[in-house]
Amino acid sequence: MTIEDFRPSKKITTFYPPQRILMGPGPSDTHHRVLSAMARPTLGHLDPVFVIMMEEIKELLRYAFLTKNKMTFSVSAPGSVGMEMCFVNMIEPGDKVVVCRNGVFGPRMVENVERHGGVAVVVDDKWGEPVDPQKVEDTLKQHPDAKILAFVHAETSTGVLSDAKTLCEIARRHDCMTIVDTVTSLAGSPIKVDEWGIDAIYSGSQKCLSCPPGLSPVSFSERVTDFVKKRKVKVHSWFMDINLLLGYWGSSTRTYHHTAPTNALYALHESLVMLSEEGLEHSWARHKRNHEALKAGFETMGIQYVVDEKYRLPQLNSVFIPDGIDDKAVRARLLDEYSLEIGAGLGDFAGKVWRFGLMGTSSRVENVLTCLNALEVVLSDMGMNLKRGAAETAAHQSYAANPMS
């Protein structure tokens, strides 16, 4: 064979993606400031100027998480690796871990516990319902030797928000460390790491931070870092070992660990600067306001939410597909005709639920109105008896009743 035999069968040229409105479960729309930041000149990952920016990222992430934890940084990988970093560092063989399971992502925690030699004790709740604090309390009483409580704060598969503050209080009473998944909640819903006493927390860059996928903000308490330093068994991952990362992210003098994704970190830095400029409380309120307007529009179409109102995630609206409506056909038309992406149901909810994301830059008035109008047209064409324009009117009324301060 010659080199020519390996040449692609067709001419491949530069890829130009279409412009979409991303209103699924993630990623969200990326702001032009963040995209522009990625295009800046690449620096070496040990360049002194880049080190200065790393320190700023740590400071900005502490603001986003509301923590003073020194070990707060960004993992050079998506949120799933942030999750694994927490488990691989905090579990030693035989450790018992209580894992709350009320959607797709709890089982992934169970997998992590088992793969790292731990023993998982599962607390199950129905999909669409929050983690039941009483069940957690009862389980920890039954398993006084449990070392860690792990749960998902904002379950992306269902759109439900669990009471992280109460769950962490329960864990502390039982001398348990906590691992908390905030991939969908960071910057969209209140998270107070220090006030709630969270030990290990991870998130993702592509949701309410509106940064491209591929980075995972994390934060570890001194309790965790002290434990990892004194582990009896070496951490079962070289790349994710906090002891090694301390030399790269933990001080102003950097020791080579890996080649950090410099341009991706420029993007994260810019997204965090934008969050700081907006203010956390304003960001939480913006997500809530747009959620209320979207909900008002859905109600005019008779679309029902999966989650009880007091437990709903503003940034991830999970609704039941109306009877007689073709799930895939609706999503295909929205994408083809309006360049609008919404999310399908996962697991138990596949074919039963749509998931509408209002995260970060995607959480804005024009997206809500575009989505409601497009959905109203498509559902009307499919036979639903809807009054055209009613959904948008309801959204405008909601905005008028809930002005931003």
Automatic annotation (TrEMBL):
Key words of the record: Aminotransferase, Pyridoxal phosphate, Transferase
Residue sites binding substrate per the record: R355
Entry protein name: Alanine-glyoxylate aminotransferase apoenzyme
Family: Belongs to the class-V pyridoxal-phosphate-dependent aminotransferase family.
Organism the protein comes from: Nitrosomonas aestuarii
Pfam families with a match to the protein in the record: Aminotran_5
InterPro entries for this protein: Aminotrans_V_dom, Aminotrans_V_PyrdxlP_BS, PyrdxlP-dep_Trfase, PyrdxlP-dep_Trfase_major, PyrdxlP-dep_Trfase_small, SP_NH2Trfase/AEP_transaminase
GO molecular function per UniProt: alanine-glyoxylate transaminase activity; L-serine-pyruvate transaminase activity
Keyword Transferase: yes
One GO-annotated biological process of the protein: glycine biosynthetic process, by transamination of glyoxylate
N6-(pyridoxal phosphate)lysine modified-residue sites: K207
